[in-house]
């Protein structure tokens, strides 16, 4: 996970630049194809170094579709419905938890091995990597048959191509009409379309173009909103992904104490019943691909919660402003995290811990929707990629920070993470609510 996040962080800026200058569709297809190849190759890695390098490359490439897809989808949707559409599409995030948890449950408990050419011992975890690679490959093939974003063509000054795509979309939505019935005959170029930079030339020219593409985000009127989006993404990933890595272990500890327990979550994690047992432990120095089934149940349950909440939020966005929902989510996350320090009922602890993570996690798509709506087309993908890069930095920081301080001061850990959510709730007041 950490190798993948570092790969995403290193290449987010580059992919944002390429998506803004070469097109969202082309970048997503190319990056998904490379991701699939590297992921399949990693399933056959025979040593740790090769595996680490290939998974790092997967992280470097997956950063493009994980961000550019929001710009691509948002540009096919009218402004008033962009955040709702992106939130609805984010249901796939919850379903991915269910998908990976279910496949892991079916595949990993098996105990078989096949020697391939006396070089690689093919085991269930290798098969699981192959299965996890398939959705990206299917998505890349599917995207080949879809058009490029008309707003991207418009931002590049290609008004004729944008109009052609819009005519095709109109005919597909109205089967009884033909191309000549499309009421729009001419499109006014978007403000800033003439300022789009190219990407030809040597490495220094590309770096210069990347700089020119990035500078507008640090100038008015983009600076304030871009800074807030980056800060929000950092905080939300810090909480949801940072805590998420430890989620199975924490839930397993809490559920193992029994319904009659009167211990707060930190008493459980610090091993009150067994002082010799540390929260962070190390296994033997070899690959152990056996996992308890409880882990898969927790992941599937978390994915189901995400899926349901994304659907609820998508429906709520028809009546409630985006900013109000983000504020409510982060406020609930912060309050839940604070209460964890004091509550000692195991069932309520589980509810609060899930609320702590999930309410921060589901807000990520809403901020992505805000970024797609707030920034002009010629820097939109760059804004989304860089803000998500800050989010990935937050996930790495959160994961490592928990490992460093949760044993030394558990209560401080939850207060610190909850404080990030509460600060984020205040920052949402800066963004337009719609």
Report on the architecture of this protein.
The structure is a single chain. The chain is an all-alpha fold and 434 residues long. It contains 17 helices and two strands. It has a two-stranded antiparallel sheet.
Overall geometry comes to: globular
Total count of helical runs of at least 4 residues: 17
N-to-C series of helices and strands: HHHHHEEHHHHHHHHHHHH
Distance between the termini: 34 Å
Helical amount: over 70%
Secondary-structure content class? mainly alpha
Entry keywords:
single chain; 434 residues; mainly alpha; two-stranded antiparallel sheet; 1% strand; globular
Give me a quick take on this structure.
The protein is mainly α. The chain is 70% helix and 1% strand. It has helices spanning 2-22, 24-42, 48-74, 82-89, 91-107, 124-144, 150-155, 159-173, 203-214, 222-256, 265-269, 293-316, 322-340, 346-361, 363-374, 377-405, 410-427, and strands at residues 114-116, 120-122.
């Amino acid at each position: 996970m950490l190798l993948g996040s570092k790969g995403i962080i290193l290449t987010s800026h580059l992919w944002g630049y390429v998506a803004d200058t070469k097109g969202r569709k082309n970048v997503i297809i190319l990056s998904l194809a490379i991701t699939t190849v590297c992921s399949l190759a990693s399933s056959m890695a025979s040593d740790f170094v090769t595996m680490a390098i290939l998974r790092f490359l997967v992280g470097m490439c997956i950063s493009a579709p994980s961000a550019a897809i929001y710009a691509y989808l948002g540009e096919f949707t009218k402004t008033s419905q962009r955040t709702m559409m992106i939130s609805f599409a984010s249901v796939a995030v919850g379903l991915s938890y269910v998908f990976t948890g279910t496949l892991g449950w079916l595949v990993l408990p098996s105990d078989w091995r096949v020697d391939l050419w006396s070089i690689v011992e093919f085991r269930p975890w290798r098969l699981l990597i192959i299965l996890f690679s398939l959705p990206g490959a299917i998505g890349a093939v599917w995207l080949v048959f879809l058009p490029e974003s008309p707003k991207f063509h418009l931002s590049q000054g290609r008004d004729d191509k944008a109009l052609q795509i819009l005519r095709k979309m109109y005919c597909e939505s109205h089967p009884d009409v033909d191309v000549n019935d499309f009421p729009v005959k001419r499109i006014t170029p978007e403000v800033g379309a003439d300022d789009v930079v190219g990407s030809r030339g040597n490495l220094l020219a590309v770096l210069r173009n990347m700089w020119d593409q990035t500078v507008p985000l640090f100038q008015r009127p983009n600076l304030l909103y871009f800074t807030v989006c980056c800060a929000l993404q950092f905080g939300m990933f810090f909480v949801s992904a940072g805590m998420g890595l430890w989620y199975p272990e924490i839930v397993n500890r809490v559920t193992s104490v029994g319904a009659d327990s009167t211990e707060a979550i930190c008493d459980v994690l610090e091993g009150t019943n067994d002082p010799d047992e540390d929260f962070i432990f190390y296994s033997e120095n070899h690959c152990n691909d056996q996992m308890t089934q409880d882990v898969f149940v927790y992941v599937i349950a978390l994915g189901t919660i995400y899926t349901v909440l994304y659907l609820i939020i998508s429906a709520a966005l028809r009546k409630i402003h985006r900013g109000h929902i983000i504020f409510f989510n982060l406020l609930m996350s912060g309050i839940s995290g604070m209460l964890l320090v004091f509550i000692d009922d195991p069932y309520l602890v589980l509810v609060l811990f899930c609320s702590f993570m999930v309410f921060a996690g589901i807000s990520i798509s809403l901020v992505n929707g805000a970024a797609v709506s707030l920034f002009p087309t010629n820097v939109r993908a760059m804004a989304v990629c860089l803000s998500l890069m800050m989010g990935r930095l937050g996930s790495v920081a959160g994961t490592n920070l928990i490992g460093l301080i949760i044993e030394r001061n558990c209560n401080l850990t939850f207060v610190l993470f909850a404080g990030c959510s509460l600060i984020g709730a205040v920052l949402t007041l800066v963004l337009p609510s719609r």
